[in-house]
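Format notes (please read before filing issues)

Several people have asked whether sequences and structure tokens are stored in separate files. They are not. Every record keeps both together, in the order shown below: the sequence lines, then the token lines. Line labels are part of the format and must not be stripped during preprocessing.
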Amino acid sequence: MPLITSAAGIAVYYETLGDPAGRPLVLLHGGGAQLIGWDERFCTMLAEAGFFVIRVDNRDIGLSQATGGPNDVEATYDLADMALDVVAVLDDLDIERAHVTGMSMGGYIAQLLAIGHPSRVASLGLMSTSLSSAPEFLVGEHSAEPVTEVPPVLDRDAYIEMFIGGQRHYQSPGFPFDEAASAELAGRYYDRAYTPTGLFRQWNALLRGPLERRDDMSRVTVPTVVIHGRGDQSLHWSAALETARVMPHAEVHIYEEMGHDIPIELWPEFVAALARTAARAERAEAGERALDA
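Then the structure lines:
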């Protein structure tokens, strides 16, 4: 699949699945997560629902460009720059407008894409994310200070052990944790692209903001579905209610059993919600064209 160069000179890697004539759907994952974190079985379900699925490696992770070396954790960019990487992918695919779904930090990038490049976004899927980094929407420890310490370089087994621990922490409390699947994904991450400083640069980019997007998002009128778990260990589920309060066309789904992950048990509901939101966008666009005529 293509490794393209954005207008800013950043190499961005992406993969597609499904019929190119389908509804284009960009999937943006969270901090440190490679595009293969979007399970291919989930993506196949989306493709069967009529989507042309576009998974993107955010810069500094996966096969996209590392913006610093092994001893460099400073971010020379912010999340708005990462949104521009998505624009470059759409341009490469000759897609004028796409449905965009983001998980966690990927949801922040999706928001900035809708704010800064509204003509490129047909609908939004906001999963386990927030419009604001205000303390009331945070769970656990969230430092506002940039990371300066270089992380250790782990061997494969140590990385897999660390990865499983992280996934276990953020797993959905209402569903069983699949340790074997977590270990398999960790091995694929490590073998595909192990960039220990990449996550830290992404985190420092996130801190560069904007950390408060509610005013800007109140002017985003595309159909939006908000998906969140009451068991989210990073972002409180009240963030989803705040999104519904702020955004005029947001549909909200809050799941008792869900944590800060994408549990397989809920995939059918997520696919249905994203397809319904895309259909809402298509009806709205058809209505606008009828009025213009």
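For reference, the curators noted about this record: The CA atoms of residues 223 and 279 lie 9 Å apart. The chain has nine helices and eight strands.
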